[in-house]
Amino acid sequence: MKKLLIVTLLAMPFMANSQNWQGKFEQLGTQLPTPNEYRNAAGAPGVKYWQQQADHKIDVTIDENTLKLTGSEKITYTNNSPDKLGYLWVQLDQNVRQKNALGTQVGTRRMRDSVAAKSMMRYTDDYNGYDGGFKIVFVKDANGNQLKYTIVETMMRIDLPTAMATGDSFEFSIDWWYNMYDRMLVDGRGGYEYFPKDDNYAFTLTQWFPRMAVYDDVNGWQHKQFLGKGEFALTFGNYEVNITVPSDHIVGSTGWLQNEKEVLTEKQQERWKQAQNSEEIVFIVTEKEAKKNEKSKPDGTKTWSFKADNVRDFAFTSSRKYIWDAVAVQLENQKPMAMSFYPKEGNSLWAEYSTEAVVNTLKYYSEKTIDYPYPVAISVHAANQGMEYPMICFNFGRPDEKGKYSQRTLESMVGVIVHEVGHNFFPMIINSDERQWTWMDEGLNTFMEHNTMVKYYPDFDLTWGTPQGVTRYMKGNPEYIRPIMTNSEQIRQFGYNAYGKPSAALVLLRETVMGEELFDMAFKEYAERWAFKHPMPADFFRTMEDASAVDLDWFWKGWFYSIDHVDVELSNVRWFKTNTVSQGIEGQNQLGKIENANIDEDGNNVDFSNGPNALTITDTPGRFYGEFKARVDDKAIASSYNGKNFYELSFKNAGGLVSPIIIEWTFADGTKEIEQIPAEIWRSNEHEVKKVFVKNKEVVNITIDPKKETGDTETNNNYFPKREDKSKLEEFKDAH
Prior knowledge:
This protein is α+β, with helices and mostly antiparallel strands and 736 residues long. The protein has 3 domains: 2-31, no CATH class; 53-108 and 119-436, Immunoglobulin-like (Sandwich), CATH 2.60.40.1730; 568-735, no CATH class. The strands form 7 sheets. The protein has a 7-stranded mixed β-sheet with strand order 4-7-2-1-13-17-15. Strand 20 (337-342), helix 7 and strand 21 (376-381) form a beta-alpha-beta unit. Helix 7 crosses helix 8 (407-422) and helix 11 (494-514) packs across helix 12. The longest helix has 21 residues, at 494-514. The radius of gyration is 32 Å and the shape is elongated. The two termini are 49 Å apart.
């Protein structure tokens, strides 16, 4: 052992230098936070895990004439943390649209010599004089006393009269209003769409009320400013919301409608009741009724009341233009309602496809995570929109004036509905911090969206969110690429970085690295552990390993922490063959080396024209046995390999991202075989490895990653015979 150790130590410096070793298979270690009593080493909530609660009672009014939203809310905030809190932080997301907002100041523009008038508004931050942002009327405690508050861009600090101890609750009120904005002019997630032909509006109200920031065991207060990209970290609570709108409006909302007898006609009430137990879609408001309704515009208002328990946010929509359909969805233990709200401009697409897509999403996500726990899931048609909230989302996809649409429009619309409804699970239930880790929201959800589409829409183009769909991005200019583990505001190519690449990584992890059964088991464990809680990246990474017994640190390091890409080059193939029995150590096989080998400039074989190299299986020298007295039967062993083909394959990791190696062998008789080598083959040498394979039949073609499932960015080096010489393949087949 001492002699072996000395030899090993002497060799190590040379090996490290020659390999430029980067530790791709070392454990993440200190890159992950130290486990503690709040979040344990297995990736589960710890024995002392805690989170805050914020309950809301809100009255809100839409004024269709002035286009103002006015609100009054009472918030009961409960401190479940072990810390004393002397002040609270509230998010004022509408302030991202106030004049000279931070997000506008730090935004960059490149001037052109020709700019569209609408785009010019964005250059100057002048939208026909739009005055955005929350207008705070007052902040008071439960006794009506004014509370001191300080507004810092999109955050508001409220100073408490007395610090909150663990277990304390504090009730306070905020009154506010703001000018709603035209989404056609102002880029944003809420606002309204104006329909000039019939002089009507469809209001999609999001981030419409001051919302509590998250206080947790990882960051304390999460009060990073909202600059426009990084979405939201939010606190769970119970909501009671009264929404006052014009009397002929139809309202869709987070929560369950509490006063249907006051806001629905008798016929609508009957249909609503029927839909709750129907396996077929029921139209509560038909297209004919919606067309008639959009012409009415009576005076007066109605108040729709909704209640939602254990949600992190609240959104709603309101318009007299809406068609409304619904159906019950039978899950394993729940029976929620799938619903759609859309104007006539959404048909003929929406009546046929929207609610069906909601149903399909609820079924697949519930199977792979937890049963959808809320009473409704709503898809609302909103032009150029794709945004999610608890129980409700807003989605694009509009046919032309004649109701015609392309296949691309259909696939895009269904895809966005599946995606946004899926957000009910990530992050509305498994409640990650989107302001910091966009991929935990968008990436996980894009992955689940892809799987849902594979199951229910197999004829659609399903490239997005797969390894094949991100190869162009991953081999692009590294100046424009960031690791997945990057804050939202620093990402350069947002769609690929936050959506496409994380999804592609998980598709690879599920279908190639772990296998579907093992991955699904671990992924479901993560969902069950962190439903209605606040997971962090380490919780996901650790749970996936803890629940599967698969060491994935190399995978997280490569796909999530680096900008390396997959490019496995099949650099050389050497073919050996023996047809003799055992010989003495000086004996030679009757096969000889063929002259005039077809090789490249690096000395590697280009094709099989060189024929097989001679392989001699010799008698075993005595020193190979050491102290053992028994001996193997040299002749029997040699005989067992007689006539077999040995292929030594050399692989180079040209892209830097270690990857499984998938090999497709094509034999002289036309048959094929696929073989997969785990990524751990690179553990001792991250740059180049060799492996020997034994085949009974002669091989005429070798292809690496034949189904393009690893995200290999350069496939021209995946073949043997090498691609430029594949014309010789047919000659070889004829000769053999």
